[in-house]
Write a structure and sequence with these properties.
Enolase-like, domain 1; 22 strands; seven-stranded mixed sheet; alpha/beta; about 475 residues; FAD/NAD(P)-binding domain; 14 helices; binds flavin-adenine dinucleotide; 3 domains; single chain
């Protein structure tokens, strides 16, 4: 068959690209070897947040007594929880399928492989295309000594499908996926241990933001071994012993399961890119320009396979850009910031320049901070850990970065992303009337704090 656009991969990059290209009048074929929705909808963002949401409920129930509500006998039934989670995933997969169909996108189930610069094999069909968008995503990294077997050593997909609560879970990797899943199981009642090779969890994140999360892990009794390397493991399912090299010497962590979450690599080796003449870099990413074109101008790459950060919303935006460029629009991928959220306890959300990076670059900045412990709404919800931190340019007062650790950080960051995209100054944020009592007031107060004008905290002019 012949089409204007072939999209390979139906994740948040690919399905969004397919819908946008179809909206713009293109004949589109979407090839997906699994369920549409990709990692994000089926084994990533959505199922993890569904289970994290339930784990927060368990936490709330356990701490309700301090607010005068005694909830006895909180029990976790992982089988029913999984059924509920799978229902959420199914609804979203159905929604994606409906949108694709309603927009006139032809869906093909099967693995796609290039046969030339203008054709690919999808299952047993050859699809000729004028333009192609590669959106094949990524897969988890394996480490020596810990091959995934779905039983003793699991990846994030395995961790999201457990039907029995592990009594003891060893998490190797303190990045956002390891931390989110570790926190999830710690909240549900597992004894969790986290092992991280670098000197802090969430490497690359402002240590100031990581502080409240690290303290909460400690309070929960989750040991975190930093600067530690996982060497290997012995034992049978349920009776494992992971050998870990720590700065204090080798230790053994006794556990039922080992979750390895040490990062993801681009999935660029299964599409026969070389037959289309598309290049990959040393790490397997497909290099692209600001229109998301590869070295072959009519072949585009988006999402995890096209580079960091590996986030769903970045993939979707790139998908829109690629589709618009194919339709002849003057689109480019040029965001001022790509916000990122870690759904731990408390949540961390960042947008724009971080303080340590600004200082390392020798930029003259002012910094405003506002603690949730001073905010009425946070107190009223009994969630007072954390703060909002705003970084501004000392001369122009332009907002450069907003970083939040605390309740609802993931929702609060969108105001910041809009402010950064619109080129807002700190006074723009500080002067905007925010409704009371709400958590976003902390963003307004942090902007005011940077200017020495916070009302509900004592001012210490930034810099
Ligand atoms: P994917 O979603 O990986 O989709 C690629 C699709 O291509 C897959 O469906 C695959 O089956 C298909 N495919 C691959 N090769 C072929 C082929 N040859 N032929 C046909 N089909 C093919 N991101 C966030 O922004 N927020 C979060 O909260 C978040 N949480 C996450 C939690 C976990 C546990 C994980 C693992 C990831 C999470 N992510 C999160 C990351 C997010 O899932 C990815 O960034 C996003 O899915 C990338 O989208 P994509 O379209 O590039 O690729």
């Amino acid at each position: 068959m012949k089409t204007d656009v072939l999209v390979i991969g139906g994740g948040p990059g690919g399905y969004v690209a397919a819908i946008r290209a179809a909206q713009l009048g293109k004949k589109v074929v979407l090839a997906e070897r699994d369920r549409p929705g990709g990692v994000c909808v089926t084994v990533g963002c959505i199922p993890s947040k569904a289970l994290i949401g339930v784990s927060k409920l368990v936490d709330k129930a356990k701490s309700a007594a301090e607010m005068g509500v005694d909830i006895d006998g909180v029990r976790v039934d992982l089988v029913r929880m999984q059924t509920w989670k799978e229902g959420v995933v199914k609804k979203l997969v159905g929604g994606v399928q409906f949108l694709l169909k309603s927009n006139g996108v032809e869906q093909r189930t099967g693995e796609a492989r290039f046969v030339s610069q203008n054709a690919a094999r999808v299952g047993d069909e050859t699809v000729e295309f004028d333009a192609c968008i590669v959106a094949t995503g990524s897969r988890p990294v394996q480490i020596p000594g810990f091959p995934f077997d779905g039983e003793r050593v699991i990846d994030s997909t395995g961790a999201l499908a457990l039907s029995e609560l592990p009594r003891r879970l060893c998490v190797i990797g303190g990045g956002y996926i390891g931390l989110e899943l570790g926190t999830l199981y710690a909240r549900l009642g597992s004894q969790v241990t986290i092992v991280e090779m670098l000197d802090q969890i969430l490497p690359g994140t402002d240590p100031d933001l990581v502080g409240p999360v690290a303290r909460k892990l400690k309070k929960r009794g989750v040991p975190v071994h930093l600067k530690s390397r996982a060497l290997g493991y012995e034992g049978r399912p349920g009776e494992l012993s992971a050998r870990i090299e720590t700065p204090e010497g080798e230790i053994a962590i006794e556990c039922d399961r080992i979750l390895v979450a040490v990062g993801r690599v681009p999935l660029s080796d299964g599409v026969d890119l070389e037959k289309a003449g598309v290049l990959r870099d040393a790490k397997g990413f497909i290099p692209v320009n600001d229109k998301r074109q590869t070295n072959v101008a009519h072949i585009y790459a988006i999402g995890d396979v096209a580079g960091q950060p590996m986030l769903a919303h970045k993939a979707s935006k790139e998908g829109e850009v690629a589709a618009e460029v194919i339709a002849g629009r003057p689109s480019v991928f040029d965001p001022k910031c790509i916000p990122a959220v870690v759904f731990g306890d408390p949540e961390i959300a960042t947008a724009g320049l971080q303080e340590p990076d600004a200082r390392a670059a020798g930029r003259e900045i002012i910094v405003g901070k506002f603690p949730f412990s001073a905010l009425g709404r946070a107190l009223a919800s009994a969630e007072t850990d954390g703060f909002v931190k705003i970084i501004g340019d000392a001369k122009t007062m332009a907002a450069l970065g907003v970083h939040i650790v605390g309740p609802g950080a993931g929702d609060l960051i969108s105001e910041a992303a809009l402010a950064l995209e619109m080129g807002a100054l700190l006074p723009d944020i500080g002067l905007t009337i925010h409704p009371h009592p709400t958590l976003p007031e902390a963003v307004m107060e942090a902007a005011k704090a940077a200017l020495g004008e916070a009302i509900h905290a004592l001012n210490r002019r930034g810099g």
